[in-house]
Amino acid sequence: MPKRFVVPESDFPESTRSPEDFELAEALTAAARQLHDTGTPHSTMRAAVRLAVHLLPGAEHAGISVLERGHHRRTVAWTDEVVRTAEGSGGDRRQAPYWEHLWQAPVVRVADSEAEDGGESLAGLGLRSALALRLRADKRRLTVLTAYSRKPRAFDDAATRVGRLFTAHVSLALDSVTVREQLTEAMRTRDLIGQATGILMERLDIDAAEAFDSLVRASQRENIKLRDLARRLVDAHSTQ
What is the rounded average pLDDT of the residues 20-40? Predict the structure, then answer.
């Protein structure tokens, strides 16, 4: 199970609450509601990149990518095509070398792509600064939300603070929708196997335990998942 990215309380010491703090709290609350209203991890990430542009000071574009050890990378959500081009495909590490630092740090900033080593690909697309935030992490895989701007030094400490708070909400929403999706799939699988068991009971004139054992043995013999075998049996029965 991927680890959630948790923002330590020590990163945000207590201070006098300003109107801006309350506006930020309200904005994050509204964003959290939208994130938790999504139905799949993919739709959660699509909502996250859209909300990132509205919430993060300086952000004009945003994307979410998954980076694996060995530098394989895939972009899973984006606001527009410039993000897909910037984040590339096929694991060309030269396109986003700053991401490598996210294995050790939760945040990496590119102040000016024209002045920093490895920023040529961003500069060539007119993207002068970036704020990369770790969403999820385990030993083999990183999920990264990156905001981009066409202005240099667009992301200051305030943007980073908002970004870390926002990614904490995104991470929680992803965990929640993933669990819901797994539970839904488990219920569907249970119902499917129940239908297949019922078909075998009727065909072979056996009880439920024997029918289930027969299904398991067939799954092992044919080297096919029990769920897929059950679906095949149910589909074949429905067409008769």
Answer: 89
